[in-house]
Amino acid sequence: MAKKVHLDPQTAYLQAAPAQYINEKGILKKAGAYVSEWGARVLISGGVRALKAAEKELTESLDESGIYWEKNVFKGEVSQSNIDLIKEKAEKMNADLIIGVGGGKAIDTAKAAAEDLRLPVAAVPTIAATCAAGSAFAVVYTEDGQFERDYFMTQNPRLVMVDPEIIAEAPAKYLKSGILDSLAKWYEGKAVESGIENPSLETVVAMNLAEILYNKMREEAITAVEQCENNELGPELKEVIDLNIYLTTIIQSLGQNTSRGAAAHGIHNGMTAIPESHELLHGLKVGYGIIVQLYLEEKPQDYIDDVIDFFNQLGLVPSFKGLGLPFSEENLNKTAAKSVNDTVMLKMPIKVTEEMIIEAMKKVEAEVN
Q1: Catalytic annotation on 282?
Q2: The pLDDT of residue 179
Q3: Considering 144, 181, 242, 305, which one is annotated as catalytic?
Q4: pLDDT for residue 116 is more than 90
Q5: Which of 108, 163, 268, 342 is catalytic?
Q6: How far is CA 213 from CA 128, 176, 179, 248, 267, in A?
Q7: Which residues on neighbouring strands pair with residue 69, listed in sequence order?
Q8: For the chain, what is the HEC assignment?
Q9: Catalytic residue chosen out of the listed positions 265, 278, 302, 342
Q10: Is 268 a catalytic residue?
Q11: Which candidate in 278, 282, 306, 309 is catalytic?
């Protein structure tokens, strides 16, 4: 018997986007029609608050379409034990499809379980804090919240259903987190691209899209946040949701060599060694990591000040003090030690050392009030 060859989804082929993506008020009332394209037996997995926001309309529509469903209440981290739990339930009910409902943790866990089982996965994001709902990628953590590994998948979610009214009703902090995480595609991508002598076509396209995302965010993000804070669905908020989820997914998919992390996400991963950081949203730590990265790149101070000012307007004070974290030599050393050899940190066009990371973090703390 021939030995099965396992391809690395990160490098073996080019991915793009979800097969179906809809951002529409009341979309969950049509969920049955969309889901029926992918199967008749569905496991729904989501957090308590997410299911409260989306379950009724979703399940009523599934019922109307004659789709059998069961539910898993997700709690905790994107950990192997949670992935295995969803797999076990999906196999027991002979599911055709897994639907992840909620934020990045719930959706990433559902995606990982579906990937292991080679089942299609659908996503119903109830916040727009990351691009998890659209991406073929998940971050797996230990049970206590430390970064463990990146999980690259063979396919993007088959279906993404976004009801922007649900996201408009969610706390604005999640939208802010998503904006910062999306902006990392521009800052990290530019850093990595600078070290590529002959960028591929997909790299060029990814960076062109990242520039569009950056410009759109500078134009619309502040207004979108204000709308979300007032629980109002305006055109800027609806578009920023698409930027956070859909366009960021495409940039990450096309930018295999540039847009899948650099120092900003490396710093994020390093910060998971600090227990107090585990409650902080992903995008806030990435936003802090962007500022650290800019110091590592030795960008002009006026350029960095402009970025800091923009982040302040988004509600982020990108420093340990601003994040409410203890600024100590121990925490600096923990972050630097865990991030310096992180896969994404190694994409930087310069050799980054622990000493450089610590120095950059100290500069951030001195500059950002």
Answers
A1: yes
A2: 97
A3: 181
A4: yes
A5: 268
A6: 15, 15, 10, 8, 22
A7: 42
A8: CCCCCCCCCCCCCCCCCCCEEEECCCHHHHHHHHHCCCCCEEEEEECHHHHHHHHHHHHHHHHHCCCEEEEEECCCCCCHHHHHHHHHHHHHCCCCEEEEEECHHHHHHHHHHHHHHCCCEEEEECCCCCCCCCCCEEEEECCCCCEEEEEECCCCCCEEEECHHHHHHCCHHHHHHHHHHHHHHHHHHHHHHCCCCCCCHHHHHHHHHHHHHHHHHHHHHHHHHHHHHCCCCCHHHHHHHHHHHHHHHHHHHHCCCCCCCCHHHHHHHHHCCCHHHCCCCHHHHHHHHHHHHHHHCCCCHHHHHHHHHHHHHCCCCCCHHHHCCCCCHHHHHHHHHHHCCCCCHHHCCCCCCHHHHHHHHHHHHHHCC
A9: 265
A10: yes
A11: 282
Query: Is residue 1 predicted with pLDDT exceeding 70?
Result: no
Across the range 139-152, mean pLDDT stands at 88
The predicted-structure confidence for 296-343, as pLDDT tens digits, reads as follows 999 999 999 999 999 999 989 999 999 999 999 999 999 999 999 998
pTM, to two decimals? 0.91
